[in-house]
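Protocol step 4 of 6: structure prediction from sequence.
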Amino acid sequence: MAARSRPTDVRPYRPGDRQDLYEVCVRTGDGGADATGLFTTDDLLPDVFLGPYLAIEPGLAFVVDTGERASGYVVAAADTERFVAEHRRRWLPRFAATYPLTEPATTPEERLVLLGHRPEAMLALASDRYPAHLHIDLLPDVQGRGLGRALIRLLLGALRARGVPGVHLGVGARNTAAIAFYERLGFATLPAPDDATVVLGLSTSTQV
C-alpha cells in the first residue's frame, strides 16, 4: 500500500526551511514568474528580500509545508525603523562583502545590489499606523488554495501579540493579480512614492 502524503499545512519557520524558501523567492522573483538565471547568482534576490527577515525576525516567518518541502512563506518586520537599524548592523556587513556596490548603478543587477545596500529605502513606506511590513511568496502549485490567506492570518496574530497596529507592503503597479489578492484580504491603498508602486496597508485587528 502506497504511503499517504501529509496534508499541506502552514506553520512557523524552522532553520531547515531556509534553502527551500530561497528557491521559492527565486522561482517567483520576476514579477511572480521564475527569476532563475536572471542575475550572476540566484542568491541575490533572496539575499535582498528574504534572508534579512529570516536572520533578524525569524519569529515572524511562516511557511507552507507540503510534507515534502516548504513551498511558500510570509516574512515580516514588526517595526520597520528598528528592522532597518538591525539590517544595517547585522545583515549588511555580510551582504556588502558578497555584493560590492557599483556606483552609479546602471544594470538591473547593480540596482538590486544598491537596494540591498540601502535598507533605509524601506522607511519611505512605513507610518505610525502601519509600522510593520511583509513579503509573501508561494510557488504556483500551492497558489489558489487559501494558503496565502492562512499565512497572513498567522502573521496578523503574531503581530497583534506584539502590539503592532498595522502592516504594509509595496507591490509593482503592473502586478494586478497580487494587488487583487491583497484587496480581497482587506488591504487598503496607501500613498505611494511613485506611479510604479502600489502601497497597501492592513490593520492587525482585521479578520482574514
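Step 5 (inspection) to follow. The mean pLDDT is 94.
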